[in-house]
Amino acid sequence: MRKILVSVLLVFIASATSWAQMTEDRIIQYVLEQQEKGMSQEQIVYNLSRRGVTVQQLQSMREKYEKQQATGVLGNTVPMVDGRPEQRVRERSQTLNLVQDDPSSVQLTERERLLQMYDEAMFMFTDSLLLLKQQLFPPEKEIWGHSIFSNKNLSFEPSMNLPTPQNYRLGPGDEVIIDIWGVSQNTIREVISPDGNIMVEGVGPVYLNGLTIQAADRHIKRELSQIYFGLDKDDSGSNIKLTLGQARSIQVNVLGEVENPGTYMLSSFATVFNALYMAGGVTEIGSMRDVRLYRNNREVAKIDFYDYLQNGILSDDIRLYDNDVVMVLPHSMLVNISGRVRRPMYYEMKDGESISILLDYAGGLESDAYRNDIRVIRMGEFQREIFTVSKDRQADFLLADGDSLYVDSIKKTFSNMAEIRGAVFRPGQFQIDGEITTVRALIEAAGGLCEDAFPTRALLSRTNPDKTLTNLAIDIQSMVNGSVPDEPLRNDDVLFIPSLFDIGEIKTISIYGEVMFPGVYRYVDNTAIEDLILQAGGLKETASIAKVDVVRRKSDKNAFEKSDELSETISFSIDENLSLNDDGFTLMPFDEVYVRRSPGYALNRRVIVEGEVVFPGHYSLSTNNERLSDIVTRAGFFSNQAYPAGARLERKMTDEERVRMRKTVETLSANDSLALAKTLEKLMEATTIDVGINLQEAIDNPGGADDIILRDGDRLIIPPFANTVKINGAVMFSNTTPYVKGKSLAYYIDKAGGFAQKAKKNKAYVVYMNGSVAKGRKASTKLIQPGCEIIVPTKEKREGMSTSEILSLSSTSASLATVVLALINLLK
């Protein structure tokens, strides 16, 4: 065992030593790779520490990179707050504030979630590494025009369905079609050979290479006039026309700053734009404004594509020839404009171009842009410089490579606005001008006061010059009537006129009891009890009109001490038809009306009689005290096959009975959770209980103890005589055997093969047909009756302690032993 531990230790030391030699770049690469794989920050720290990367090493990296960030070595200067990047501190603060305000309403990004999980140990290096990652992997520059080559809807393929231009020059591979009509008719189709000739029967080779369509047409006409009569005469009626059939392919080289430089086969109608598209477009540093075209080792064109991007004009897009070279040079001036312009991005500029030209490329200013000046940040010889360029200088301010321009927005505040809210017909914002200069004029402009406007007090919120707020209370009614001076308005004033419904509680009244829709209703002045009953859908058939209670709150706004009296109850009788009368009681806010159930109303209650009676079926109880003997008499008494001793009564459980039974089962099964669960499951499914009765005794002694009172839903079942006895449970063979009068319990157990091995012999019991149960005694002969069932319970299996229980007991014992040992040492 010791050898194994030593081997593992040596392997760990060797691994730690190798990782301890990791460079800072390797550590950064590892952290970034693991973050992309989804590894938590805690796990990254743990893995680095296992591999020998020390805290001092990480701390040194942190200080180094934060120093570089603060001094702008890696890029733009990052302000620091308490030694941490300001952006990080601000993001964390904003995130925490959002969570505190309403955690359920915030959808956090993955970055925000990670920021919440960072603790101080993580901050030792993760902030620096995240900032470094932003510098190492900055977002790609969006340069105007570059994305046009990645647009799948633009292919720039030349159209082949247009008429052949007359200045198109023929070359090897072009197919020419020569149509002859008039005195002679013929069509000749030939492909120009590499030598530049076509072969015409009867004439021989005709050289067409380098000729335009127009020149080739005249040349072929002269050549064919040797064999076709009249072609050389204008009035002969014969003529000839040369057209281009299948255009040749040309080979073009695309070089320089393109995504896929190389040689491409293009149509002879292709232009420089087609070639750039085939090469995947220009790279990030490629120029769209200085594309060179070389032909026969000479520069023949410089192409600027910005005119096409801005105006859709391709005047400089020159048609290519075989073996042309398209060269894309790096851009010489790239500037960035951001803020309130329509296309904020990078733009390639030429020497001598100004801010005004850049604004044209950027689509102009947004409507909310601040137009008086633009800020320009320029890279100086040793540090950055900033220029504030006014509007009248923008046409003359020439741009330089690396310039960064920012167009600010105007303030979101108003210079001449007052707002009115609340109980007016047209709330909103209004212009402060010659017509609206006072509070009264503002109310009139808003359509006037609503009928529910609170008349005596309104609130004018005013912004002071230092942006603090001041509230002014205004008597609206007096100001509108002119009895108090009008208040002049100032910019950003907000006038709030409350509604009568906005102040105080919402006034309600409620009704409960025997109405169709009991509940809470909005209070309306002059509401009588009958009115509220109508709103609640009217009275139920069970309602009492002799007694309706109204409960009214006790309220004394001038009281100085509590009163023991909580409410006042007033009782009334009402008309069944809710007719109008002069004595109607008017309700007050928050009154509660209770419509009682009439004591003289009773629902029909039914019982069911089944089995061996003359008239089985449903019976309605005529009194509250109807008993077993009464219902049997109403059913025509027993039939000849009836067995009254086996009659049983099923009764529907009430909710209260189910609750009591549940509590009883929970108490009895407190030490057996499995048994409790099974019993409760059966209990929740059951809707009835069996009531043990002695029907024959009830018939013989009407009104006696056995003649129980019936309840709604009772089901009386009178079976026919059964001359058998069932034996079930822990016996050798459960079966049914004929009843023999005078035989004891032991006799019937023997009929089932005797007791099983795990039988509780002394706990056997007998269930009779009427639902009653008796404890079994082996020698008793009166215990057994026809139709009964003998049940022998099984002994419960004793389970030993589980492994977890043994471990728990062992742990507890060990802990106790430790405590005892400590006490012994203290007492020495």
List the helices and strands and how they pair.
Layout: H1 2-20, H2 24-36, H3 41-50, H4 55-71, E1 80-81, E2 84-85, H5 86-101, H6 110-117, H7 120-123, H8 126-136, E3 175-181, E4 186-191, E5 197-200, E6 204-207, H9 213-224, E7 239-244, E8 249-256, E9 262-267, H10 272-278, E10 286-295, E11 298-303, H11 306-311, E12 325-330, E13 334-339, E14 345-348, H12 355-361, E15 373-379, E16 384-390, E17 404-407, E18 417-422, E19 428-431, H13 439-445, E20 458-463, E21 469-474, H14 476-481, E22 493-497, E23 508-513, E24 519-522, H15 529-535, E25 543-553, E26 567-572, E27 592-597, E28 606-611, E29 617-620, H16 628-634, E30 648-652, H17 655-668, H18 673-685, E31 688-691, H19 695-700, E32 715-718, E33 724-729, E34 735-738, H20 745-751, E35 765-767, E36 773-775, E37 789-792, H21 803-827
Parallel strand pairs: 8-12, 13-17, 18-22, 23-27, 28-32, 33-37
Antiparallel strand pairs: 1-2, 3-4, 3-7, 5-6, 8-9, 10-11, 10-12, 13-14, 15-16, 15-17, 18-19, 20-21, 20-22, 23-24, 25-26, 25-27, 28-29, 30-31, 30-32, 33-34, 35-36, 35-37
Helix pairs in contact: 4-8, 17-18
Structure explained in plain terms:
The protein is α+β, with helices and mostly antiparallel strands and 828 residues long. The chain folds into eight domains: 2-136, no CATH class; 146-154 and 249-330, Outer membrane lipoprotein wza fold like; 175-244, 2-Layer Sandwich (wza like fold), CATH 3.30.1950; 334-407, Outer membrane lipoprotein wza domain like (Outer membrane lipoprotein wza fold like); 417-497, Roll (Outer membrane lipoprotein wza fold like); 508-555 and 565-597, Outer membrane lipoprotein wza fold like, CATH 3.10.560.10; 635-718, no CATH class; 724-792, Outer membrane lipoprotein wza fold like (Roll), CATH 3.10.560. Helix content is 27%, strand content 24%. A hairpin with a 4-residue loop joins strand 3 (175-181) and strand 4. The longest helix is centred in the last third of the chain and has 25 residues, at 803-827.
